[in-house]
Amino acid sequence: MSVNATSFSSPLANAKYAASGIPAQLEPVMEAISQMGIWTVALTILAVAVVYDQFSYIWQKGSIVGPAWKAPFIGPFLQSMDPKFEEYYAKWTSGPLSCVSVFHKFVVIASTRDMARKIFNAPAFVKPCVVDVAPKLLGADNWVFLDGKAHVDFRKGLNGLFTRRALECYLPGQEEVYKTYFKRFLQITKDAGGKPVPFMPEMRELMCAVSCRTFVGYYISDEAVKKIADDYYLITAALELVNFPIIIPFTKTWYGKKAADMVLAEFSKCAAKSKVRMAAGGEVTCIMDGWVKQILESKKWREAEEKGIKVEGTKPSPLLRDFTDYEIAQTVFTFLFASQDATSSAATWLFQIMAQRPDVLDRVREENYKTRNGDIHAPVTMDQLESMTYTRAVVKELLRYRPPVLMVPYMAKKAFPITENYTVPKGAMVIPTTYMALRDPEVYTNPDEFDPERYYSGDAEVKGAKNFLVFGVGPHYCLGQHYAQLNLALFVGKASLLMDWKHHPTPISEEIKVFATIFPKDDCPLTFEERKW
Ligand code: HEM
């Protein structure tokens, strides 16, 4: 072949393969390749890659349910950009284990309670697998990405921040935020001339504000809280299952990263202030204070031990190392990251469902009124909050009925023999589903009905002990689960005393929109009025 025969000639054309030590048996192959044009080579490579991609999918799929073939390379990528609850549901009902493959990612979905529990409780085989962009937002060295012993040890140091005693310190700050935002809810209805307004964005902002107060107390200004609450939407929007590997300016991930950096910068400033206040013997009023206090006490203990001095009091357990302001901010940011979407989802459904069920709302109101001894503005103590068993049953049933987190992605660290017949391949994503266990008719009578009675006077607590996967189980179960439930109880109880509200249903009010967690598709149109007693 002449070198000038065509400008598309293969770069291998005329190559002296024989002279470069290629075995004689391969000579015909090399000869054939050298005769090909560049397009032929490219198309052949593409065809081989398509066949490999297809075979690899079919091989990994093995005996479980899934499409017979995948769209070359991308699989259902476009669907995953706009996830639909109905499509997830179809997947869960297709079999206990089902699969899809998106780009290079093979994904196994476990739908039954027992399969889901098996994954949650298999730390030797799996580790949590957050979406691609999460390490870029939270920092790759963040504790949430630790695994095994390192994770267990770090988590031990955080447990003290969520004890009953600790949670009680955060209550006054939470009540104050609720009071402020309830006034705003009333104003929104007034400003709209009494017309319904979708309240999902408001619920998100309120939950972000209450989280900031709980996590970093009064070290943060109201303006900064407002900015974080406004911008947090950008962080959620960046959390797609698959993102482009680098952050390109003006894309969702770019805006998400900017918002995350802003939160980290604000929280770092709070950490510096908390260190000063705690060192001066200040009271703990937020989660950050609690952790900083533990860090300072650990430091004091270690220094005294080094000098051989005996220290009064009990040894901090576990003894924490020193953390920089930025590291403290990073850890506290994980709480916001973990709570914001889930709590906003629960808050939105709670307001929608309470308006639809005045019988339930009346009982919540009555319980809260009695507990506060008839003073609708009285703050509650932890004892009082815990004593409101009906309000807490409402929250628990809400979380069962509309579980904010439908699925929790894990990654197989090694081949994981999940059943006798099927082994999840190493590197695959493996996703336990919470939804099906929470709608199991054998455990919950009429599972598609919202019925707080099942947790108040019924046996759902005991009968459904293994089914209540709302907060996960195993070594990564939700660190904030008690706080989250008590906070929602405080929220709806206080709202019931100060306001009346109406839900204005639309044809899509009961349909589920998936936006990291779940929301009513119409974003929950509500109107509020001050409650007259
Ligand atoms: C209704 C609200 C909430 C729901 C439904 C929820 C649900 C979950 C779920 C399903 C997991 C994964 C569990 C697993 O892999 O086994 C999780 C993890 C976690 N949650 Fe929550 N959560 C909520 C609120 C909160 C709050 C308020 C906080 C913090 C204050 C929080 C902090 C965390 C943390 C730190 C983790 C990771 C724990 C670890 O990896 O060790 N969550 N949550």
List keywords for this structure.
533 residues; Cytochrome p450; globular; disordered N terminus; binds protoporphyrin IX containing FE; monooxygenase; monooxygenase activity; heme
In a nutshell, what does this entry contain?
It comes from Thyridium curvatum. The chain has 533 residues and is α+β, with helices and mostly antiparallel strands.
Give the mean pLDDT: 90
Number of strands: 12
Could you give the order of strands across the largest sheet? 1-2-8-5-3
CATH architectural category: Orthogonal Bundle
Helix/strand layout:
Elements: H1 27-35, H2 38-61, H3 77-81, H4 85-94, E1 97-102, E2 105-110, H5 113-120, E3 126-128, H6 134-138, H7 148-159, H8 164-191, E4 197-198, H9 200-216, H10 222-237, H11 252-279, H12 287-307, H13 325-356, H14 358-371, H15 382-387, H16 389-401, E5 410-412, E6 416-417, E7 423-424, E8 429-432, H17 435-438, H18 453-456, H19 460-463, H20 481-498, E9 499-503, E10 512-515, E11 517-520, E12 525-530
Parallel strand pairs: 2-8
Antiparallel strand pairs: 1-2, 3-5, 4-12, 5-8, 6-7, 9-12, 10-11
Helix pairs in contact: 8-9, 8-20, 9-10, 9-13, 10-11, 11-12, 11-13, 13-20, 14-20, 16-20
Protoporphyrin IX containing FE binds at residues 120, 128, 144, 155, 334-335, 338-339, 342-343, 346, 404-405, 408, 470-474, 476-480, 483-484.
Describe this structure in words.
The structure is a single chain. The protein has helices spanning 27-35, 38-61, 77-81, 85-94, 113-120, 134-138, 148-159, 164-191, 200-216, 222-237, 252-279, 287-307, 325-356, 358-371, 382-387, 389-401, 435-438, 453-456, 460-463, 481-498, and strands spanning 97-102, 105-110, 126-128, 197-198, 410-412, 416-417, 423-424, 429-432, 499-503, 512-515, 517-520, 525-530. The protein is α+β, with helices and mostly antiparallel strands and 533 residues long. The chain has a single domain (136-530), classed as Cytochrome P450 (Cytochrome p450). It is globular. The N and C termini lie far apart (96 Å). Residues 1-19 have low confidence and may be disordered. The structure holds protoporphyrin IX containing FE (HEM). Protoporphyrin IX containing FE binds at residues 120, 128, 144, 155, 334-335, 338-339, 342-343, 346, 404-405, 408, 470-474, 476-480, 483-484. Residues 120, 128, 144, 155, 334-335, 338-339, 342-343, 346, 404-405, 408, 470-474, 476-480, 483-484 line the site of protoporphyrin IX containing FE.
